[in-house]
Amino acid sequence: MSRAKRKDRLMTGIFYAIGWIMLAFLLYLTLTIIFDGLKGFQWDFLGAAGNGIFNQFFNTIYLVFLSLLVSVPIGIGAGVYLAEYAKEGKFLTIFEISIESLSSLPSIVIGLFGYLDFIMWTGMSWNILAGALTISILSIPLITTETNNAIRALPVEYKEGSLGLGATKSETIRKVLIPAAMPQILTGVIMAAGRGFGEAAALLYTSGQSTYINWQNFWKVTSPTSPLNPFRSGETLSLHIWVMRTEGALNPSATQIANFTSAVLVVLALLFTLVTRRISDRMRKRNNGGN
């Protein structure tokens, strides 16, 4: 066996070992969080009052949904611009540096920016919409980068074939390039949603640490206690964990609540990832002709 092949096998084995070690660590961490959450489980944790976390569960899904409504169109649009319209030059360089800088900013800085823009300048109190817009600032760079990379990675025949059949550039982008790149774009959406599920620092200054919901006012969006009112304060699961571990000393079940909330948050993020991955796989098979 040649020296090059031995090195290749050695490095392959090392990378496989690192991958399996990381997978085992993630599996151990996930199972530990879920086990600790279920160990102190009480049925009243499922309710919407007292020690229940159902309101925080709803707030988390609602806030992430609102943030994706904002970040997905902007992120995909920016990614398409970079891949198809932007010309080499200083402006493009500044644009790319801005995206990279934005994606590397600490969430606490984005939270303070959201507090200044969406709370202080508007004169409103803490609200879910402000939290969603703040999370969108964190999410847009992820989706933009994935969209740009996904479109650039497509075979040039996709674009040339569509244009050759008489389609305009905008039609080619909307009907050919974006659908073909959508499986990879969904990876950016998954990353953005995962950050929204687990974010606490940015929401501390924007969405608030309290939640008052009257489920009988569900469809009365203008009511300050309606679940669908985006201008009410809305504590999320991640914020609830922080509150229970820092300010919940007077609650004898604070540790159990925090552990159970952590388990619910992990399962929620995992389910979202699995469902989105399933959709991505179906799109990829459809793009490959069902193979």
Q: Topology of this protein?
A:
Elements: H1 3-39, H2 54-85, H3 90-104, H4 107-120, H5 128-153, H6 156-164, H7 169-198, H8 201-204, H9 237-246, H10 254-287
Helix pairs in contact: 1-10, 2-5, 2-7, 3-5, 4-5, 5-7, 6-7, 7-10, 9-10
Task: Offer a concise description of the structure.
The chain is mostly helical.
Average of pLDDT: 85
Characterize the main sheet: none
Give a count of the beta strands, DSSP E runs of length 2 or more: 0
- What is the percent of helical residues? over 70%
The N- to C-terminal Cα distance equals: 37 Å
Low-confidence stretches: none
Count of separate DSSP helical elements: 10
Form type: globular
Strand % is: under 5%
Strand/helix succession: HHHHHHHHHH
Tell me the Rg in angstroms.
23 Å
Secondary-structure-based class equals: mainly alpha
Write a structural description.
The mean pLDDT is 85. The protein contains ten helices and no strands. It has 291 residues and is mainly α. The relative contact order is 0.14. The two termini are 37 Å apart.
Identify the notable features of this structure and list them briefly.
mainly alpha; globular
